[in-house]
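Sample intake sheet
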Amino acid sequence: MRIMITGATSGIGYQLAMAYAEKGHQVIACGRNQARLEELVSQSVNITSLCFDLTQYQNYPDLKESLDILIFNAGDCEYIDDSLNFDAKMFERVIKINLISVAYGLEKWLKHINKKGRLVLVSSSAALLPLPRAEAYGTSKAGLTYLSKTLAISLKEHEINVTTVHPGFVDTPLTQKNNFPMPMLINSKDAASKIIRGIDKEKSEINFPTVFVLLMKCFSFLPLSIWQRLASRMV
């Protein structure tokens, strides 16, 4: 199989690229860190790379190859600590990398997915519930989840399957910046394994850790006023 992965230079994306290459699949690893991409390529003859900035529409490369799996994994997280003095530029940065860049990639590459192939969008469990300080990150991931589930319907006629991924806390360079407790934290290699197993099983939704995401979904059924009181204690 030929698999394309964005955000492949660290964290979950890096582990996905390595795992698929070790299984003998051809991997196209995308990122903007040339040194990290070269390091990745040096570890397997099954990996090739594309170095470009996902937030720059004009930089998106055209593909000659067809794809069996296209995984949109790249993302970033910044928090809004003072909602009264809302930081619109920061909000724009997060939305652009987490959501708009996916639209750029869809325009360029979606048509290259083979029939019976799979589109995978890595969202977040933060999409399931409004969380303090996550106005930018949560909005982008909620939008990504909606986009993924909508595409799952509209791409059926083209015989392209869609998977939405909702990870909980995963130990990556992104979450290592967090200064708050991260319950049920797992490492990025385990996260990649769970994603690959879910894709192999042709799951439309992959949630992990199971208990953490189940709790998030249960909280989402609470009346909003009750959840707001609970969430305010997290600030």
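Comment: The longest helix spans residues 88-109. The chain has seven helices and nine strands.
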